[in-house]
Amino acid sequence: MTEAPAVILEKVTVEYGRNKALRDVSAVFPKGAVGLLGPNGAGKSTMLKALLGFIPPKSGRLEVLGLNVADRPLEVRARLGYMPESDGHIPGMNAVTFVAYCGQLSGLPKSDAMQRAHEVLYYVGLGEARYRNLETYSTGMKQRIKLAQALVHDPDLLFLDEPTNGMDPKGRDEMLELIRDLAHNKGVNLILSSHLLPDVEYTCDHVVVLDKGAVATHGSIDQLKGPAGRVFEVRVKGEMPPFVAALEAAGLKCHESEEDVMRVFVPGGAATPGADQQRICELAQQVGVQVRHLRASLPSLEDVFAKAIGEP
Amino acid sequence: MSPIHDQSYRRYTGTREPRGRSWAVIAWAGIRGMLSKKIFLGLLVVAWIPVLVRAIQIWAVVTYPQAGQLLPVEARMFMQFVEQQSFFVFAITVYVGSGLIASDRRANALQNYLSKPLMRVEYIVGKFAVLASFLVFITLVPGLILIVLQVSFAGNLDFLKANLHVIPAVILASLVRVLVASFAMLALSSLSKSTRYVAILYTGAIFFTESMFGVLRVVTNSTRSAWVSIGGNIEIVTDVMFRQTPRYDTPVIVAVLVLAGLVVLSMSVLERRVRGVEVVS
Question: Which of A293, B79, B162, B242 falls 20 to 30 Å from A269 in CA-CA distance?
Fold first, then answer.
């Protein structure tokens, strides 16, 4: 039997004045870890805020864990944990008081809230700093405290809005480990909103790609990464634009991933081994560039993303 | 059971409180936060000095009736006490109230609150309760204590029987001050992220309306324009509650309507400003 989805959006339109932040969006977020991916301004945060009931949609229907957001916003929020993108704390509180306070606001009895606050602060790596005032916390610590306050009441679904923003590489890796652990070992469903592809790729099983307020693509990452086609890393010596034009004229799609390395996507089903490489070399020869590096590459979420939002 | 304590994430299996009690959590956290400040505790103690003075006055008049010629204990005395406390109402409103919502807005805390299972009205009620509790503590509570002291010192109910209206008058006059000050300050606090700016705004509103009344009084040679002053309206209503002749010529109904309008306007501001997300059109 198929498990009920965590979130359903049906033809949802959200407007800020005249600006449409979400345009007739329909999407289904399955349970588990789902990445909400998109460039800045795509409507990711707006979607999360609409699901929380902060912004009423102009039209459409939002459903979270089987509950209609418009009809039962408090029940929805009782089962949600929200880690906002921007820093937010209650002034004058230390970490453990703040997290316990959030637990109480979410319905936990006072003693349970305090006990859970200690536990989640240890879990997110702030055990030693839990009696420090929040105003003295670094950016990385503030990200962790936001996760702790979202977790304290043990939500059934977590909304994580850009959880690695402003973190140093080590802190970022630790945060991603926490998210991955929550999703895969602790049974917490989550929606991770990010514009960072590696974060989503590392932590999530499914992805919904938003672009300009509309869903560009969605599905399981494995499925999306493994379409009918192959990807090659190519580096050439010579003029790039004519080569790119030749590849695209031949029906291949390419985009730059590093300074001089290009990823070339060859659509279609299985091909004879070496046929694609030969085709690329022939096209290079036609426009007079030398192929210096050509290697089959595993498709990444970056390819899926670029393809979905129509980047060259 | 494992001898090693698991510090990993665990699912919560305990009970949850029924919804609708978050305002009390917010109120209690706010009250506790204020009571941890020594300056504020000092202010509360100073606000109770007039209570002590009035208690001594009541004792002196009951013990030495001739003292009543100099400092009579009558309904008017309770009115004067409530009016004297207006200064402390102002001071505590500015000290406690200016940061109630402004600090949350500055720290971006509203989204934290409103992402929890609580309604906006619960948040507002919680914040309101913080300020209102302290104002009640320096107006209504000591007012009623003074009445009880009068009865206790006199050992009879003669004063109360002759002035039964004093009890509702003390309650209503105190509550009018609490309601108007709390709502007006909360509304102003929701308009800014700066506590200092809110304090200046509130002080300005009180003194500006008072000055405007003063100017109009001189220009028109009449007190009919007392309705432009927040304090003037409260004084008119207080006079009526204590069965005194209103000190200004503004009709009581006008004063009541102005105060009610101020509360409604404040509620409307709060409804617009307290949101989980700021929408800029």
Answer: A293
Indicate the pLDDT class of residue A264, thresholds 50, 70 and 90.
Answer: confident
**Residue A267's pLDDT band (cuts 50, 70, 90):** confident
Q: What is the mean pLDDT of residues A261-286?
A: 81
pTM confidence score: 0.84
Look at residue B44 in the predicted model and tell me its pLDDT.
97
Closest CA to B137 of B229, B231, B43, B213: B43
Of B19, B107, B111, the CB nearest to A91: B107
- Cα-Cα-Cα-Cα torsion B172, B175, B181, B185, nearest 10 degrees, comes to -150
| pLDDT confidence tier of residue B70, bands split at 50, 70 and 90 | confident
Whole-number pLDDT of residue B217: 95
User: Taking 80 as the threshold, does the pLDDT of residue A255 lie above it?
Assistant: no
Distance of CA A303 to the CA centre of its chain: 15
Contact B111, B276 (CB under 8 A): yes
Task: Tell me the residue length of chain A.
Answer: 312
Q: Under a CB-based contact definition with an 8 Å cutoff, are residues A116 and A153 in contact?
A: yes
Give chain A positions within 8 Å (CB) of B114. 52, 54
For residues B234-263, one letter each, b for 16 or more C-beta atoms within 10 angstroms of the residue's C-beta and e for the rest, the string is bbbbbbbbbeeebebebeeeebeebbeebb
Residues A73-88, mean pLDDT to the nearest whole number:
92
Rounded Cα–Cα distance for residues A172 and A167 (Å): 5
Q: Do B109 and A88 touch (CB under 8 A)?
A: yes
Task: Write the DSSP string, B77-113.
Answer: HHHHHHHHTHHHHHHHIIIIITTTTHHHHHTT-HHHH
ipTM exceeding 0.90? no
- Nearest chain A residue to B20 by CA: give it: A107
CA distance A187 to chain B (A): 9
- Bridge partner residues of A295 (DSSP): A233
DSSP state of B31: H
Contacts of B119 in chain A (CB under 8 A): 74
Predicted confidence (pLDDT) per residue in B97-133, tens digit: 999 999 999 999 999 999 999 999 999 999 999 999 9
The residue with tokens 């090659």 is A232
**What type of residue sits at position A11?**
K
